[in-house]
Specification:
By secondary structure, the chain is of the alpha/beta class. It contains four helices and seven strands, in the order αβαβαβαββββ. Strand 6 and strand 7 form a beta hairpin.
Length: about 160
């Protein structure tokens, strides 16, 4: 995944991207990619709790943490990282928050797992693994050390 991301950034002539992880699993993946790519500036962290569109169904996360972007996103090339891409709603919320901070030059989406099932027209530029799950299953990243993907059956 790191090599694919590095090649994409080189192809687009992006030398110093701002890497931003979506809390929590996306931050863990972003930390690994950040180190593997040898990036030296601080990593950005987004907690999208206030940007979600499903408050009425799941309620507010009781452990909301502040987002942290190390510098202005204006005219920056952002690598947005998440652990699992499913409906696209988490990524939409993250992009809404990023645009509240400013206007980036571009956003590249990198995800560890793409499990399909999109509800919004959002696709990752870099995918660690495509994973087809049966109805009633979901995938979760546990960590941070070690990072482990766990497939679970949804409780009914």
């Amino acid at each position: 995944m790191a090599e694919e991301l590095k090649a994409l950034l080189e192809q687009r002539r992006i030398r110093v991207p701002l890497m931003v992880g979506i809390h929590t699993g996306g931050v863990w993946v972003a930390e690994r990619l950040h180190a593997l790519l040898g990036l030296t500036h601080d990593l950005g962290i987004l907690d999208i709790s206030f940007y979600r569109d499903d408050f009425s169904r799941i309620g507010m996360n009781p452990q909301v943490k502040p987002s942290k972007l190390p510098y202005s996103v204006d005219d920056q090339h952002i690598v947005l990282v998440d652990d699992v891409l499913y409906t696209g709603r988490t990524v939409r919320a993250a992009m809404n928050e990023i645009f509240d901070y400013g206007r980036p030059a571009s956003i590249v989406l990198a995800v560890l797992v793409d499990r399909g099932g999109r509800e919004l027209p959002i696709e990752a530029s870099v995918v660690g693994r495509h994973l087809a799950l049966a109805a009633g299953q979901h995938v979760k990243l546990t960590g941070p050390d070690p990072l482990t993907l766990v497939i679970q059956d949804t409780k009914r």
